[in-house]
């Protein structure tokens, strides 16, 4: 019985885009794996399949990947090609799947965007990506998504704000939320801790809280519009000397109040129509049919 033919990988074969991965000689361009590893077999494969697309001048870039030569004065196409070879070389050395290239590109884009579209070598090297750090970041992301889901599906929530000064004499605002679900179960969570660098007025605190809620997809200003409209409506009725200065909302529990609400609505129907004309002209056109005969 003859032993299986084995030949050690020769670094020269890297010029033809072959690499040794898990003790297997594989073409990095198409994944071809020869059954017998011979130089002339690899050379023939490269000449037939890839020589037209990958010229010798491009292959020289491989030897500059780990060298100290700079490409500052090179054209953008050369820089792009050099980066492609450098990343492909790292993927090969670490025995990663070829499809990881697109994932690496997404990581690079995300990192550059995080640094304001300007990322230096020192800044890239300073990005913490150890195993423990990545696990901690993923836990934070999952926690944020869970809170976002709770806020989106909750019936009610209340806030608790605590403003204090740390040992650096910096004002810190802690934002807590009690989130109530439809089944009356509730959770209490710390949404965020915000540093207030300048003043700590009510506007500063409101803006900090609003920015925190925007992270969870909720706009405090937009959410408060209905309450602002209600106050405008009450003030409008007072300035027009209406018989009633407000209309309480109908509640199914207090079903006996439905008749009184309708009576109040009918008594100030003219003022309601004028309010819609002044503040909500589009809504006024939609409900104009109900206010045809105001007398």
What does this protein structure show overall?
The chain has 295 residues and is α+β, with helices and mostly antiparallel strands. Mean pLDDT is 79; it is low at 57-61 and 65-69. It has three domains: 11-125, no CATH class; 136-219, Nuclear Transport Factor 2, Chain: A, CATH 3.10.450; 225-291, no CATH class. Strand 3 and strand 4 (171-180) form a beta hairpin. The chain is 46% helix and 13% strand. The chain contains twelve helices and five strands. It is elongated. It has helices at residues 39-49, 56-59, 76-93, 100-114, 121-125, 131-153, 202-215, 220-223, 225-239, 258-267, 269-279, 281-286; strands at 18-21, 24-27, 156-165, 171-180, 186-196. The protein has a three-stranded antiparallel beta sheet. It has a two-stranded antiparallel ribbon with strand order 1-2. It comes from Acromyrmex heyeri. This is GT2D2 protein.
